[in-house]
Write a structure and sequence with these properties.
463 residues; alpha+beta; 13-stranded antiparallel beta sheet; three-stranded antiparallel beta sheet; Oxysterol-bd; Oxysterol-binding protein 4; OSBP_sf
Length: 463
């Protein structure tokens, strides 16, 4: 069996994009299932394996910090949604975009790398209208494992911020990775009321370790709730029954929001079964063809019958662009795992295991030194807000507000590559003490001035 992994190629030989490269795909063979049986001797069912090392042959050759970027694979749908003014039509398009981002996955049993503390991944996508959406992710905590990330498009005035705790458990014949947390999308179109959307994430299952077919499956409820539009979209991604049935089936609906759909700013997933008036129903294969049915008194789609919604296999892909490796910093994901990924692609699992172990040993030594110095960890780009219990990106919201009255041609277009430089436009608080280390990583509740060796300006476009 083959599956596909993104590799990189140069996309420009000169000009502003000469320092970037765009991802492509290449195929290589799956490792035989018999090797997975070694798991049987290392784990017992039900245990939390967040801190345990998994065999290298079940690793997807990229980090979790990069994996979340797949949400923007069909980002043209999101750009289209930004132009829609009708609330229901807009929610339909947003649901279409959000569901389309989950089908990008490798065949077989593959798990992304557990990011090291402080690991960063950043990239951007070019849209057909010339605008760009950028992405910045940082592993802000290791115990528990929390990834914070941000998408932003200055041209279309939207951002998506999220923090997710990946909680893997060994279940005997499968591994479950529960994605706890959520995200918030904000839209600030000039001349229009601000909009907000709150989203949740399903769980990921690596099934068939010993019995049945090797497969990675996404299952569980996922929701998009908009308090400003007064609409909610609930989708249940269904697990395949053991004996019969199909993979990747889902069903869901769009309805007017109920008061309990959001509790303390978070989606109340259990409220999806509450009685409500549904406006739209959706169903189908979220990796292929889906259907929609308009349940309104005066249907605007398909006269109330099931109607083709979207086939994600026909959608154009956006390929992300990243800085070339020689422009990346030591803490960036593709540098951190620079020896492991090539070994996996070459199917040299002995070398891959050693490369993985080298990173883990080095990180334990760094953590021990930090503990001996009684130093906590200070995040680079995100800070923890104890009031909202969310990870927020440093500086950007303040910069956007400060630039509201600035002429458009004089505004700074923020990207992950000029974020540090742009931060000097305001005065972020200086971290005058380092919190003591504890059992869990320290959550910095201020926006710290970056250490001197990291505070140099990164060029928006490396030369």
């Amino acid at each position: 069996m083959t599956y596909y992994h993104e590799r990189t190629m140069s996309i420009a030989s000169e000009g502003e994009d000469s320092g970037f490269q765009e991802d492509q795909e290449e195929a290589f063979e799956e490792k035989p299932q018999s090797l997975l049986k070694t798991l049987f001797f290392e784990y017992s069912a039900g245990i939390d394996i967040a801190n345990k090392s998994v065999p290298s042959f079940i690793l997807e050759p990229r980090s979790m910090t990069e994996r979340f970027a797949d949400i923007m694979t069909h980002g043209e749908l999101l750009i289209d949604a930004m132009a829609i003014t009708d609330p229901i039509d807009k929610m339909i398009m947003l649901a279409k975009w959000y569901m389309s981002g989950w089908h990008v996955q490798l065949r077989g049993i593959k798990k992304p790398y557990n990011p090291i503390l402080g690991e960063v991944f950043r990239c951007f996508w070019r849209h057909s209208d010339g605008s760009r959406t950028w992405y910045l992710a940082e592993q802000v905590s290791h115990h528990p494992a929390v990834t914070a990330f941000r998408f932003q498009n200055e041209t279309h005035c939207f951002s998506i911020s999220a923090s997710v705790e990946a909680k893997p458990r060994f279940l005997g014949n499968s591994i479950q990775v529960k994605l706890e947390g959520g995200g918030t999308m904000e839209v600030w179109k000039p001349g229009r009321p601000a909009e907000s959307y709150v989203v949740t994430f399903p769980s990921v299952y690596l099934r068939g370790l010993f019995l049945g077919k090797l497969a990675m499956e996404i299952a569980g409820p996922t929701c998009v709730v908009s308090p400003t539009l007064g609409l909610s979209a609930f989708c249940l991604m269904e697990a395949k029954p053991f004996l019969r049935g199909k993979y990747n089936q889902f069903s869901g609906y769009i309805s007017e929001s109920l008061p309990n759909d959001l509790v303390n700013g978070r989606v109340n997933v259990s409220n999806h079964s509450a009685r409500r008036t549904k406006l739209m129903e959706v169903r189908g294969d979220w990796t292929g063809q889906t259907e929609v049915r308009d349940l309104r008194e005066q249907p605007a789609i398909g006269n109330g019958d099931w109607f083709p919604f979207v086939n994600v296999r026909t959608l154009p892909y956006l390929r992300k662009a990243t800085a070339k490796l020689h422009h990346q910093e030591p803490f960036e994901s593709r540098i951190v795992w620079g020896n492991l990924t090539p070994a996996l692609l070459a199917r040299d699992f002995t070398k891959a295991s050693q490369a993985k172990a080298d990173v883990e040993v080095a990180q334990r030594a760094i953590a021990k030194e930090r503990h001996n110095r009684k130093e906590g960890w200070v995040q680079r780009y995100f800070h923890y807000d104890s009031k909202t219990k969310e990870w927020k990106i440093n500086w950007i919201d303040e910069l956007r507000k400060n630039q509201a009255n600035v002429k458009e041609e004089e505004r700074i277009i923020l990207t992950p590559y000029n974020l540090v430089d742009a931060s000097t436009l305001i005065s972020p608080p200086i971290l005058d003490h380092v919190p003591k280390s504890s059992e869990h990583d320290q959550f910095s509740e201020v926006q710290p001035q970056l250490p001197e060796h990291l505070a140099h300006p990164w060029p928006m476009y490396p030369s």
